[in-house]
From TrEMBL, chain A:
GO terms for cellular component: plasma membrane. It is found in: Cell membrane. One of its GO terms (molecular function) is transmembrane transporter activity. It comes from Saliterribacillus persicus. It comes from the Bacteria. The chain crosses the membrane at residues 20-43, 49-67, 74-94, 100-120, 127-148, 168-190, 219-239, 251-270, 277-295, 301-324. InterPro entries: ABC_transp_permease. Keywords: Cell membrane, Membrane, Transmembrane, Transmembrane helix. Pfam families: BPD_transp_2. This is Rhamnose transport system permease protein. It is a multi-pass membrane protein.
From TrEMBL, chain B:
This is Monosaccharide ABC transporter substrate-binding protein (CUT2 family). Residues 26-48 are annotated as: Disordered. Its main location: other. GO terms for molecular function: carbohydrate binding. It is found in: Cell envelope. It comes from the Bacteria. Residues 52-308 form the Periplasmic binding protein domain. NCBIfam families: RhaS. It comes from Saliterribacillus persicus. Residues 36-46 have a biased composition (Acidic residues).
Length: 334, 356
C-alpha cells in the first residue's frame, strides 16, 4: 500500500506539483498585496510589472541552461554592462543607426564574452564559478575602460534607440514581446530538439553522456554562448529602458537571476530545471519588487523578505528531492 | 601530460590576472595622478609640496571632476597633486591608498570618505606624522580630520528643494521624496531639513506623502517611482536628491506621458538630466559644481600646510577664483561651506551637460 503511493509519486508529478505550488504562492502573494493596496491589480501596474520583469526572465532562461550543465555564470551582470555601454557609445556616435542593428551589435558583444567563458570552461576545464568570477572583473573593467569612466546619458541617445524599450506591438510592450518570443523558442529548444535534451543529459550524468557519444565540449560552449548572447541582448534592452549606460550597470544582478532560477526549481547540482518553472520564478521576483514598494514595507525589511522567500523555496526543493531519492531507493529494493 | 599542460595554462591565467590587477591599479593611479612623471620632477626640486586627494572609487564622472578641480587649484599654487581612488567604493581600498600616501610622506591628504568612522585609525596615523588631513564632499568623523569641505550647506539644500517644489506646484498638492538608500547619511540629513522647512514655512496645502528609497539602482528607483504613481494618483511632484533617482523618476514620467502633471526636481547630474529638463518633466534642479568643491579643497589643503588655518572656527583663507572662505562649526568638528546649490534650468543646461 505504502509502496504504491510512493511509486505513483514519481518525479514528473512532483515537478508539476512544485510548479503549481509556486503558482499558488504567487497568487496568494498577489491577493495579499491587493488587499493592502488596491492599486496592485490594475492594468497599468501589471503592465509595469511585466515590463520590469522581461529582462530578468530573459536572463533567467539562459542561466537555467548553464545551471543544468552543473555550471554557473557570474559574469552576466558585467557582460550586460559591457554590451550596453558599447551599444550606447555606438548609437551616440552614429545617431541614425537602425535599432535592430544596435540590438545585433549588443548580442554580438555578449556572444563573444560567452564564447570566451565557454572555451575556458570546456576546453581548459576551469571551474565555471572561478572562470566566470575572473571574467566578471575583466568585463567590468573593460566597461569602465570603454566608457572612459563616463556615463552615456539620455540626451546622447537617439529617440529611435530609446524607443526599443518604450514602443509596443499590438498593444504589447516590445520588451515583453521579446521575452515571450524567447520563452517560446526555449520551450521548443529544450523539450523537442536533440541538442536540448543533450544539455540535460550532460548535466544529470556527465559520464553516461560521454559514453553515449554526446560531445560535452560542444554542449558547454553552446550554453555559455547562449547565455552570453542573451546577456548582450539584455544589455541593449536595459540601456534603452533606463536611457543611461553606467560603468556599474547591473552590478550584482547575476545573483537575482540565479535566485529566479532556484525559485523556479532549477537545481544547482545540475540536470534539473524547467522553462515554465524559471518563468514563474522570475515573475515571483517581479511581483516582489513591484508589490513590496506598494504596501509600504520598510526598506530594511524588503531585502529580508526577498531572502526569506528564496530560502523557503530552496528548503522546499531539498525536501522534495529527499522524498524522490527515498522513493527511488525503495523501488530498487523491489 | 595533459594534466600538466592544464596546470601551466592555469598558472599563466592566474599570473595574467595578477598582472592585469597590478596594471589596473597602476593605470588608475596614473590616469588620475600622472604620478610617475611628477615624481620625477619632485626629485629635481625636493622642496615642492605634494597634496593628495583620495576619491570614493574610480570611473565616477562626478569624482573625475572633483579631482580635476583639486588638481587645478594645486597647479595654480605650483605644487604637485596626487589623485588616487580605489577600484571599488570600499573603506579597505581607501585605507590601503592612505597607507601608501603616508609612506610617501605627502604634505596633505584630502579624502572623500567611503565610511564616516571606518577611516579614523589610518587618518589619525597620518595626522600623527604631521600630514594635514581634510575631508570633502562625503565627510569623515570630526576626530579623523582637521576640517571638512562641505559642497553645500545641508540646510540650504533641504530648504531650497522644498522652496523649488512649492514654486513649481504653486504651493498646493501631494509630493513624494525618492532618496538613495535609507542609510545614506547626507540624503537623510537633507530630507530632515526638507521636513523642517515644510513645518516652518507657509506650506499648508502641500503634503509630503512618502519617502521612498531607490538605493541608487536604476531598476529599483523605477519600481519605486511606479509604486508612488500607483499609490498616489493625485501626486503632483517627486523630489529626488540623488542622481540615479531623479533621472529614473524623470524617465518614468516621460515614458508614461505625464509631462506637466507630475514634475520632478531635486539634485542630479546635468548630463543625466539634460533630456528631462529640455522636455519639461523637470523645470529645474540643483547641484553643486564638483569642480569648485575640489578646487576649494585644494586651496584649503594648502592653507593647512602653510599654517594659514589650523581648522579652528573663525579661520579664514583665500581660495583663488572663488574668493574668501571662513571655517565654521559643524555638527561634528569644523567645516567650510562652498555656498548655495547651483540651479540648472532650460537656459543653462545645454552648456553644462557637456561638462559633467
Amino acid at each position: 500500500m505504502k509502496d504504491n503511493i510512493l511509486q505513483s509519486l514519481n518525479l514528473e508529478k512532483i515537478a508539476k506539483f512544485r510548479e503549481l505550488g509556486l503558482l499558488g504562492f504567487i497568487i496568494l502573494l498577489a491577493i495579499i498585496i491587493q488587499l493592502l493596496n488596491p492599486a496592485f491589480l490594475t492594468f497599468g501596474n501589471l503592465r509595469d510589472l511585466l515590463t520590469n520583469t522581461a529582462i530578468l526572465s530573459i536572463l533567467a532562461l539562459g542561466m537555467m541552461l548553464v545551471l543544468i550543465t552543473r555550471g554557473i555564470d557570474l559574469s552576466i551582470g558585467a557582460t550586460l554592462a559591457l554590451s550596453g555601454m558599447i551599444t550606447a557609445l555606438t548609437v551616440s556616435a552614429y545617431g541614425n543607426l537602425h535599432p535592430l542593428l544596435a540590438i545585433l551589435l549588443g548580442i554580438m558583444v555578449g556572444i563573444i564574452c560567452g564564447v570566451i567563458l565557454g572555451l575556458l570552461v570546456s576546453k581548459i576545464g576551469i571551474l565555471p564559478i572561478i572562470a566566470s568570477l575572473g571574467l566578471m572583473n575583466v568585463f567590468r573593467g573593460l566597461t569602465f575602460w570603454v566608457g572612459g569612466g563616463e556615463w552615456v546619458s539620455a540626451y546622447q541617445m537617439p529617440p529611435s534607440f530609446k524607443s526599443i524599450a518604450t514602443s509596443s506591438f499590438l498593444g504589447i510592450n516590445t520588451l515583453v514581446l521579446i521575452a515571450v518570443v524567447i520563452f517560446l523558442l526555449f520551450y521548443y529548444f529544450v523539450n523537442n530538439t536533440i541538442t536540448g535534451r543533450q544539455i540535460y543529459a550532460v548535466g544529470s550524468n556527465p559520464d553516461s553522456a560521454r559514453v553515449s557519444g554526446i560531445n560535452q565540449t560542444k554542449i558547454l560552449i553552446l550554453v555559455y554562448t547562449i547565455m552570453g548572447g542573451l546577456s548582450g541582448l539584455a544589455g541593449v534592452l536595459w540601456v534603452s529602458k533606463f536611457a543611461s549606460a553606467q560603468g556599474d550597470t547591473a552590478t550584482g544582478y547575476e545573483l537575482t537571476v540565479i535566485a529566479a532560477c532556484i525559485l523556479g526549481g532549477v537545481s544547482i547540482a545540475g540536470g534539473v530545471g524547467k522553462v515554465t518553472g524559471v518563468l514563474l520564478g522570475a515573475i515571483l521576483l517581479g511581483v516582489l519588487s513591484n508589490g513590496l514598494p506598494l504596501i509600504n514595507v520598510s526598506p530594511f525589511w524588503q531585502m529580508g523578505i526577498e531572502g526569506m522567500i528564496i530560502l523557503i523555496a530552496v528548503l522546499f526543493n531539498t525536501n522534495v528531492k529527499m522524498l524522490v531519492e527515498k522513493n527511488n531507493l525503495l523501488r530498487r529494493e523491489i | 601530460m595533459l594534466r600538466r599542460w592544464v596546470l601551466y595554462v592555469l598558472l599563466l591565467f592566474v599570473f595574467g590576472i595578477l598582472v592585469a590587477c597590478g596594471d589596473d591599479s597602476e593605470t588608475s593611479g596614473d590616469a588620475a595622478g600622472e604620478g610617475t612623471t611628477e615624481e620625477g620632477q619632485e626629485e629635481t626640486d625636493g622642496e615642492q609640496n605634494r597634496y593628495a586627494i583620495v576619491f570614493k572609487n574610480t570611473g565616477n564622472p562626478y569624482g573625475e571632476k572633483e579631482m580635476e578641480g583639486f588638481e587645478n587649484a594645486i597647479n595654480e599654487l605650483g605644487a604637485e597633486a596626487i589623485l588616487r581612488a580605489p577600484d571599488q567604493p570600499t573603506v579597505e581600498g581607501q585605507i590601503q591608498i592612505i597607507e601608501e600616501l603616508i609612506a610617501q610622506q605627502v604634505d596633505a591628504i584630502a579624502i572623500v570618505g567611503n565610511d564616516y568612522d571606518g577611516l579614523q585609525p589610518v587618518l589619525t596615523k597620518a595626522m600623527n606624522q604631521d600630514i594635514k588631513v581634510l575631508s570633502l564632499d562625503s565627510a569623515v568623523n570630526g576626530d579623523s580630520r582637521m576640517v571638512h569641505i562641505n559642497q553645500a550647506d545641508p540646510e540650504a539644500i533641504g530648504r531650497t528643494q522644498i522652496q523649488a517644489v512649492a514654486e513649481i506646484i504653486d504651493n498646493e498638492g501631494q509630493f513624494a521624496v525618492l532618496s538613495a538608500t535609507s542609510q545614506a547619511s547626507n540624503q537623510n540629513l537633507w530630507i530632515e531639513w526638507m521636513q523642517t522647512e515644510l513645518e516652518e514655512g507657509d506650506y499648508g496645502d502641500m503634503e509630503l506623502v512618502e519617502v521612498a528609497y531607490g538605493d541608487d539602482l536604476r531598476d529599483k528607483s523605477v519600481s519605486e517611482t511606479e509604486a508612488l504613481l500607483q499609490s498616489y494618483p493625485d501626486l503632483k511632484a517627486i523630489v529626488s536628491p540623488t542622481t540615479v533617482g531623479i533621472a529614473a523618476a524623470s524617465k518614468v514620467i516621460t515614458d508614461k506621458g505625464l509631462q506637466g502633471e507630475v514634475v520632478v526636481t531635486g539634485l542630479g547630474l546635468p548630463s543625466e538630466m539634460a533630456e528631462y529638463i529640455n522636455n519639461g518633466v523637470s523645470p529645474w534642479m540643483y547641484l553643486w559644481n564638483p569642480l569648485d568643491v575640489g578646487y576649494l579643497a585644494g586651496y584649503a589643503a594648502d592653507a593647512l600646510v602653510e599654517g594659514e588655518i589650523s581648522g579652528e572656527v573663525g579661520d579664514t583663507f583665500e581660495a583663488g577664483d572663488l574668493g574668501s572662505y571662513e571655517v565654521t562649526e559643524s555638527e561634528d568638528g569644523t567645516e567650510v561651506l562652498l555656498g548655495e546649490p547651483f540651479r540648472f534650468d532650460e537656459d543653462n543646461i545645454d552648456e553644462w551637460k557637456e561638462i559633467y
